[in-house]
# Entry
Amino acid sequence: MAGRSEYGLLIDYEYCTGCYTCQIACCQEYGWEAGMSGMNVIEQVQKLPKGKAYLTYFPFPTELCILCAPRTKKGLEPACVQHCMANCMKYGRVEDLAREMGEKSRMVLWSPR
Amino acid sequence: MQKDGVEIVRTTTWSAGPGCHGGCGVLAHIKDGKLVKIEGDPDHPWSHGRLCARALAMTQYVENEKRLRKPLKRAGKRGEGKWEEISWDEAFDLIEKRMKRIRDEYGPESVIFSMGTGRDIGAWICMLAYAYGSPNVMFSLSGNACYSPRIAAVDAVQGDFTVFDAGQWLPDRYDDPRYEVPECMIVWGYNIHGTCPDNLFGHWIIDLMKRGTELITIDPRLSWFASRSKHWLRIRPGTDSALAMGFLNVMINEDLYDHGFLEKWTNGPHLIRKDTGRLLRESDLVNDGSFNNFAVWDSHVNKTVIWKSDAAGYKGDCAKSMVSGECTVTLADGSEVKCMTAWDAYCEEVNKYPLEKVEEITGIPAEDIAKAARFYANAKPGALHWGVSIDMTPAVTPLCQAIAAMWALTGNLDVPGGNVIAKYAFDVVAYALPGAEGAIKLRREEMDEPRIGRDEYMPFNKFCWRCQTDLTIEQIFTEEPYSIKGMWMQTCNPLAGIALDPEKWRKAFEKLDFIAVVDLFHTPTTQYADIVLPAATFLEKDSFRSWWVPLQAISKAMEVDECMSDIDINLELSKRFDPEFEFDNINELFDYILKPSGMTFEELKEKGYAIPPEGTPSAPYNRYQAGLLRPDGKPCFKTPTGLFELYSTLREEWDLEPMPHHEEPPYTPVSRPDLAKEYPLILSTGRRSPVFFHSEHRMIPWLRNIDPDPIVEINPKTAEKHVIGNGEWIWIENWQGRAKYKAKLTEVVPDWMIMATHGWWFPERKAEEPSLYGVWEHNINLLLPMGEQGKDGMGAPIKHSMCKIYKVDGKEQ
# Structure
């Protein structure tokens, strides 16, 4: 039975460039071996009419994501959020982030385990 | 800073480590002399606390088990992978002995000093080469096809280079009241956010997009930028100059250009003789006139007025210079010739490119080109950012001239949010790059005379202070006009990365008496060395970064075994090679180079970084009006005429086309329809991975896990035709060779082109030949030729060749 998360991550995937910073920032923070990380960047190419397509990346918090509790307790941002090259990730209370999500399109709100 | 037994060292990234062109502010957390963590420095105006995957993987880099930690001497034959550890003293003694022997017997120019991309090494490799006495410092890519061609081409017509303005010159960046966000930005052949090349932070463009900048992207691939652009122009590789001419065609014929700039700041009004088709010079008009002065037609009084190039002004008054029209002038010998303006000649050239023709050449619908051109020309301000793809075609110089004219004629030159003149902060220039004289020079001018390519190719004579790469490798075989006997390679792994036709390079290495390589890991290239020296990462050295802005300190945070910084290595050898060498230690050397900033190295370290103040030549804006670009302090540009040269006086003197135009490159379906029958696909190479820098990082577990295999992108339609499934291994082949790649089926490439990643080798495979870490099986450059540089020695066909593809059969897997 899954619990309820008070905190979450708001991702503006319009601006995620797929730089993998979040994934490696997590590896460094927790010393994961290669192949494990609290973040996993996913690429998606959606074909559109007239020979066009839309290339999207989005960071997915895996089962290893603990929302950097040890960092946030100290008043720091989660490692992925601080280093995000596109500044497209935000950490906060799910309720606050949900409100913010309504203000812009192409957003996704994660509430990890 | 000290916290919980952890010392936090503030420094700047550059080179070994993330591998890139650097500039990010970082905080290195050091405990008991070891790196425990690295973070972005939130207070740094360049990166604002952000940091890339490669920098964040530094803990796996510095302590990597494959890292070289002691000097090595080759024990077996070249390519046998056998080594003996030696001490630094032994290594230095051996290098000194071997290289002095070559110098005594063949002269200093017979050793080539070879480097890779723009690292914290250019200055120090020049220092070593010059102390040894050789002018042959080589940027090892064919046609020197990265950045130098763009910079040299723009310097020729504009005097200084420009880059897009993201407020990087201002401490408060986007919030500075002087700054304006561009309405439009052209991203031309660039995935800048992948690896931050050209001394810029790629995600600045994302910052601008969030602030309202809309994009025009020119790219055959559906890049991330392309998929978010107002206008995406999917260009056939190698036809960029035709597209640029199409842009100019719209801007000029729809009157979307800045007439004031044309008349006052360009040589558009200068007269061209209709009999010779060349510029009318003062020496044509009067017997003692200068060859370097030119003439305009004053349409108020109907007579010629001389433009004095050295003074950047007219001789006497000019009420109204004719921009368009004809006139008849009397020459010194009394004869009369008809003249036209350079602007009219320019328009004639541009009118050779109606949009229907441009569509036919580039494959981009005429209507899309027109819309994009109007959007850029009407944007106030508009910025243009171009990538290395521009350099990777032989006719790079005319292409750059066309693009430079786009930003100049639209009034976007050195204005906030436009294309801003990029100078070295505080004019601290460590070594000569195009457009700037460096602090580190050859001791005497005549020592430059044997530099390879200097007499063949005039940009190498005037702007580019390296030897020409294709001619250099060729000379190893011909031994004409002199023999080459040794090579010093630093931050450079040609056999896996920068060399085109790497088999030719291997044969060249086999001919050399002595090869030394400085690197952090064994690579395919180190296997051909006689001696390999272990270098330090940016965390293990003191240095500084002077490339555009800001001026930054690199502060040593730690040490790893016997690894030594490139600077220390080269300083020690410089002292041994040159008895008159001036510097005893790196602090003396740095203080000397930093002198124009008014700071010592210690003072710069204290500050971390420094941004030049307003009103100085390396701070924006509008410097050509303010007289901040020329040594004489007059307004205008640092070009031969002092003007922005739509018609290049230097190119005319060099008997090259003075105006921009399109030349179909070698090896395209258009130039070689005969080859297209067997090799129907366009082969483009080198799309970047954000977790690798060129041939580096394949041994860093976190990074390699993200991008484990050499990937070639293939359109699903093309793959279906060739019965290739996603993830299957295929051969990419042409007349020169073949390489094994893993197919990624994706809509980002069109069905007529494939995109192969570059720099592949496998540190986990056998070092010795014939494997050489798998490089002979997987290096895409095996399919790319040397010796196809442009007419001026610049550029190489790297982004456009031709190939066929087929599945690797079961046995070969």
Remarks:
- The domain at 2-62 of chain B is CATH 3.30.200.210 (Phosphorylase Kinase; domain 1).
- The mean pLDDT of chain B is 97.
- The longest strand of chain B covers residues 738-745.
